[in-house]
Design goal:
The complex is a heterodimer of chains A (470) and B (399).
Chain A: H1 7-17, E1 24-31, E2 35-42, H2 48-61, H3 69-75, E3 81-84, H4 87-95, E4 100-103, E5 109-112, H5 142-152, E6 158-165, E7 171-178, H6 184-195, H7 205-212, E8 224-226, H8 229-237, E9 241-245, E10 251-254, H9 258-261, H10 265-269, H11 272-301, H12 309-319, H13 326-346, H14 349-362, H15 365-369, H16 375-389, H17 394-432, E11 434-435, E12 438-439, H18 449-452
Antiparallel strand pairs in A: 1-2, 2-4, 3-5, 4-5, 6-7, 7-9, 8-10, 9-10, 11-12
Chain B: H1 2-30, E1 41-51, E2 57-64, E3 85-92, H2 95-105, E4 109-111, E5 117-120, H3 122-127, H4 130-138, E6 147-151, H5 155-159, H6 169-178, H7 187-194, E7 200-209, E8 218-228, E9 231-236, H8 238-247, E10 254-258, E11 267-283, E12 286-302, H9 311-340, H10 347-354, H11 356-362, H12 366-369, E13 374-385
Parallel strand pairs in B: 1-4, 1-5, 5-6, 6-7, 12-13
Antiparallel strand pairs in B: 1-2, 2-3, 7-8, 8-9, 10-11, 11-12
The chains are: A alpha+beta (470), B alpha/beta (399).
Chain lengths: 470, 399
């Protein structure tokens, strides 16, 4: 609806919109001693001092009678001033934290870019800390986050397209890409998927992640999330698209492959030998964290001849008094471990340590002495636990931790055969996945030689043609 | 058309959960395939096969006791306390019969997968190994990599031992075999020898060293039993065993002491690499086998008056060494060709490989040909490292 020429009419509508909103301030003023005007803003979302100094004070002495909107605008000393002509737009600006000036006799309002609110300072993200590399992380304010990216990639080709998602929350969402590197079709696809979202609020990027991913039932994340500006810019340089949501430090990166979820920024910040070694270690332990307990269960219940004799005899001895089957034992211990980990994660730090002490006792010596679990099982659980912490990203760690259980069942019922069956099913699913049209397992399947040097090992930087990699 | 597809999709959505639950049921209801928990197993570490007086087979097994006995069981330590194994024997008309009777006598499932040692009693070996070998090679769980021995006496006696150094008698025998100071024959090797063209095999003999007290007695490997056509026909002593090992290219380590001519004292050499090649040749009806032994030695001790930093002296020692080795090889050859007439060196297969047609024509006559095969020895043993000192400085007259 268009703004009317009458201030009173406009105010009536605005007050109706903002009824029962105690934090919306309607500040009465008279410009230059003759023209009535109203400054509308939300308390706490603006820089009040600057508003006083650069808008209220200059306008009091104001332009002459019957000023044009442009005259009023020129009178203020604010760098960012916009005009808007409809009620809806005005409401959106006010809700976004911008003070809006409505003037008698004007069918347009002035919007001052003075929004500001309390924000966390830029810190190192705790979930993605590095030994070497930048220590800054995204914060909850999108404006600051975009600025961080812009500071890393100072090219005008870095494009930022914003839109609002959430019928109620009207959360600003930014789609960021580098023109000329990101494929236009990819950007179009992301935009169209974002536009199709029908939700009321977006509190976190995961809200939109579940809407735009290709396979909505898969346990595997098809979008990479990060809190690190350096990671985001690295992927931007690879032609991927960053989706940013105001109010959360996590940003989404699309498209995502399985192997990019297994990389850390430090793979690239350390020397390539170190990067390669750590990467291999990670792959190995990833397999352990998926298959460790299953392998143990399969071998102990079906393939005793596979164990070296001496170990076999020792294991037979330690399992002698255990009342449960190896499968039961494994499920018991793994569940216990997951419970302990979850309990520890949600507790305040001071109590968290108590949990780990009790946990160490429960799945440690006490459980063995009580004759409930065998010592080798505790070791397997411990190794698996450590292995699951090797997952560089929480999002990829979770599906692997969960898939461990069905494979354990299969191993307990059919031995190695079942285990392999489980692995085949999972691999089959992963090979089927796509993230915005890019095969999830690429560049391994479909095989792309140029990409393999960043998967099988971390090739030296001069060998990595980052642009060609997907 | 489109409508049909839509219907199918809707159907799929409805049937998918049903299908999934059926799949889960299939797994759960089928139970756990041949699952067996470790603590339901009677783990056999060694097996002995004997022939009783009345021609039955006596199967004895050494079972590892997994249940912690007595106090201190909770320590979880795999302590080496003795008596952790028990021996059970049964008799039956053949191996399978005995094995099934064995299961009747044991509360747990008999598990052959870890049986690393198979012992044949001397009487069994002399009666023939065909019957037990068929069972052991046919049986899924028994290991082809298990070590096979012939016992000096009943196999059960060896199983009853519990040598103090190792956890069980099986461990002791495996380790002794793997040191390769004597022959090291696995089930696979034995099977291959038995079905080879030469139809002869060798097996190491386990001898019990009796000491006072049961715990003190221990088994060790001494000598070789010669098997022809599946039956043991004789045994050879330790010196001949070395000769056999040279010929079979099984010498992995050896310390040879020689006494060089025109010098008093001895030089000891440690062989650290050796290879024996058999090169067959048929020349005008004469069957010739060239045995080429090459190797490298280190001098480990010199009590003679030779200065081993002088190349000539090294040559002298080498000659002497070759002479000693040749003597042993000739002893072994002599016994095999003349006394046992058993081709335990697998000459037959070498001839067959090179002259398949001639071999086929003469296959039936091999027993007559073998004793007459002319063996030419080409021994070339080198001294690679004479050690850090040349002369023995510690002999007064050498200073």
């Amino acid at each position: 609806m268009k703004l009317s020429n009458h201030l009173r009419e406009n105010l009536r509508r605005l007050r109706a919109v903002y009824s029962d909103c105690a934090d919306v301030v309607f500040h009465d003023m008279v410009i230059g001693g003759h023209t009535p005007a109203m400054l509308v803003y939300i308390e706490g979302l603006i820089r009040l001092e600057e508003l006083d100094q650069h808008v209220v004070a200059p306008l009091r002495d104001g332009p002459g009678p019957n000023p044009a909107l442009q005259d009023i605008r020129n009178q203020t000393t604010v760098a960012s001033v916009q005009t808007c002509g409809t009620i809806e737009e005005t409401v959106e600006k006010i809700s976004g934290g911008n003070p809006v000036l409505l003037v008698e006799g004007q069918n347009a309002a002035l919007v001052f870019g003075l929004s500001s609110w309390e924000q966390r300072s830029v810190e190192e993200p705790t979930a993605e800390s590095v030994l070497r590399g930048p220590r800054e992380g995204f914060i909850e304010t999108m404006r600051t986050n975009i600025a961080m990216l812009r500071r890393k990639i100072r090219s005008p080709k870095l494009k930022v397209v914003t839109l609002h998602i959430g019928t109620c929350s009207r959360t600003p969402v930014a789609v960021i890409y580098i023109e000329g590197i990101a494929q236009p079709s990819l950007v179009r696809e992301i935009m169209s998927r974002l536009n199709r979202i029908e939700i009321e609020d977006v509190l976190e990027t995961s809200y939109i992640e579940e809407w735009i991913e290709d396979n909505r039932y898969s346990p595997f994340p098809q979008l990479l999330s990060t809190e690190r500006p350096d990671v985001a810019s690295a992927y931007l340089m690879e032609g991927r698209v960053v989706v940013m949501v105001d109010g959360t430090p996590t940003v989404l990166i699309a498209p995502t492959t399985f192997f990019s979820l297994l990389q850390t920024p430090e793979d690239y910040y350390e020397r390539y030998v170190v990067g390669t070694a750590i990467r291999w270690l990670r792959y190995f332990f990833l397999a352990i964290s998926l298959l460790g307990p299953s392998l143990y269960v399969a071998v102990v219940t079906f393939h005793q001849e596979m164990i070296p004799t001496t170990l076999m005899l020792t294991m037979a001895r330690s399992r002698e008094q255990i009342p449960f089957s190896a499968l039961m034992e494994a499920i018991l211990m793994e569940t216990m471990f997951e419970a302990l980990r979850e309990a520890g994660a949600r507790l305040p730090k001071q109590i968290g340590s108590a949990v780990s002490i009790v946990g160490a006792l429960v799945i440690g010596q006490a459980a063995i002495s009580a004759g409930i679990v065998s010592a080798p099982m505790v070791m397997v659980v411990a190794i698996t636990g450590i292995a699951s912490f090797m997952a560089p990203r929480f999002t990829i760690g979770i599906p692997i931790r969960l898939l461990r259980f069905p494979i354990m069942f299969l191993a307990g019922m059919m031995g190695l055969l079942g285990m392999i069956l489980g692995v085949i099913i999972i691999l089959n699913h992963m090979l089927n996945l796509r993230s915005f049209g890019v095969p999830y397992m690429s560049p391994l399947a479909p095989m792309k030689n140029s990409g393999l040097k960043d998967v099988l090992w971390r090739a030296p930087r001069w060998m990595l043609n980052r642009r060609g990699k997907r | 058309m489109r409508r049909k597809r839509k219907d199918m999709l809707a159907n799929g959505r409805r049937t998918a959960p049903a299908f999934l639950s059926l799949l889960v049921c299939a797994f759960l209801l089928a139970g756990c395939w041949n699952a067996r928990e470790v603590n339901d197993l009677a783990i056999i570490t060694a097996t002995g096969v004997d022939l009783t007086e009345d021609g039955q087979i006596e199967l004895s097994v050494k079972i590892y006791l997994t249940s912690p006995s007595g106090s201190g069981s909770m320590s979880g330590q795999p302590d080496g306390n003795k008596g952790t194994s028990v021996v059970r024997s049964v008799t039956g008309i053949n191996m399978a019969d005995a094995a099934s009777r064995l299961q009747k006598k044991i509360s747990r499932k008999v598990f052959w997968g870890q049986a690393d040692v198979f012992l044949f009693g001397e009487r069994m070996a002399r009666a023939g190994l065909e019957a037990p070998m068929d069972f052991l090679m046919r049986h899924i769980a028994s290991r082809e990599r298990a070590h096979v021995f012939v016992c000096d006496g009943p196999a059960k006696n060896v199983l009853l031992l519990s040598p103090s150094i190792e956890r069980s008698v099986a461990d002791a025998l495996v380790h002794m075999a793997e040191q390769q100071t004597g022959l090291n024959i696995t089930m696979m090797d034995l099977a291959q020898m038995l079905i080879s063209k030469s139809k002869a095999a060798v097996l190491p003999i386990v001898v019990i060293r009796e000491e006072q007290g049961e715990k003190q007695s221990f088994p060790y490997i001494q000598g070789v039993s010669v098997i022809k056509n599946g039956k043991m026909i004789g045994r050879v002593n330790e010196d001949v065993t070395r000769g056999i090992m040279w010929l079979r290219n099984e010498i992995k380590q050896a310390t040879v002491t020689v006494s060089p001519e025109q010098s008093d004292g001895y030089v000891s050499l440690h062989l650290h690499r050796s290879q024996t090649r058999l090169i067959p040749k048929i020349e005008g009806g004469r069957w010739i086998m060239t045995v080429r032994i090459t190797g490298q030695d280190d001098i480990v001790e010199n009590t003679s008056d030779l200065d081993l930093s002088v190349p000539d002296h090294i040559g002298k020692v080498e000659k002497e060494l070759e002479k000693v080795v040749n003597t042993r090889v000739k002893m072994a050859l002599g016994q095999a060709q003349k006394e046992f007439k058993a081709d335990i060196f697998q000459f037959a297969d070498n001839f067959y490989r090179k002259y398949p047609k001639i071999w086929e024509a003469n296959a039936d006559r091999w027993d007559e040909i073998f004793p007459e095969v002319e063996v030419r020895l080409e021994t070339d043993l080198r001294i690679a490292r004479p050690g850090l000192i040349g002369k023995n400085f510690f002999r007064q007259e050498q200073r």
